[in-house]
């Protein structure tokens, strides 16, 4: 944890007077995200700091851009894995729906889809993201390692006679979607392996 003297030294290294009020807020917020606010939802942070949730979202986004590593594919993969533990099938099993509070992660995933001429739907609420099964595979292609795909495909070949990823997901989606209440499902690699 950074003490006051280290914080002052870091500020002086940037040049005295070089940071405006917003820069200070983003700098402090970045530090808090790594310490006292780590793992909290946007709502919990807004209550704790007595800020509107919209300001929390903006500060998180700016802190990631300035003090995070916006090109860190591994960090995005870990965040995405955490989110996939609470997915739901929608549209009769043809799509999945997840909640992504982190603007930077949402923008990263959107950029991955756009590179392939695809997109997600968050028209109802920007944090609720709906992704078609085919597009979900495109995301996993970018996030999963070759070893993870090998593990998944080996299990598919062993237990499901070589079914394709999309075929497996669509069948799973139909089964889950037919159950009452739109059951929350774990779509991480370990969750999918357990369901094969």
What does this structure look like?
This protein has 196 residues and is of the alpha+beta class. It folds into 2 domains: 4-67, no CATH class; 73-195, no CATH class. 61% of the residues lie in helices and 8% in strands. It has 10 helices and 4 strands. The longest helix has 15 residues, at 53-67. The protein is elongated and about 65 Å long. The N and C termini lie far apart (44 Å).
N-to-C series of helices and strands: HHHHHEEHEHHHEH
Q: How many domain modules?
A: 2
Biggest pleated-sheet summary: 4 strands, antiparallel
Helix content: 55-70%
* Structural class assignment: alpha+beta
| Average pLDDT rating | 86
Instruction: List how many beta strands DSSP finds.
Output: 4
Order of strands across the widest beta sheet?
Answer: 3-2-1-4
Radius of gyration: 20 Å
Please, what is the oligomeric state?
single chain
- Shape by Cα distribution: elongated
- The helix count comes to 10
Provide a short characterization of the protein structure.
This protein has 196 residues and is of the alpha+beta class. It has helices spanning 4-14, 21-34, 42-49, 53-67, 73-84, 103-115, 133-143, 146-160, 165-178, 189-195; strands at residues 87-90, 95-99, 128-132, 184-185. 61% of the residues lie in helices and 8% in strands.
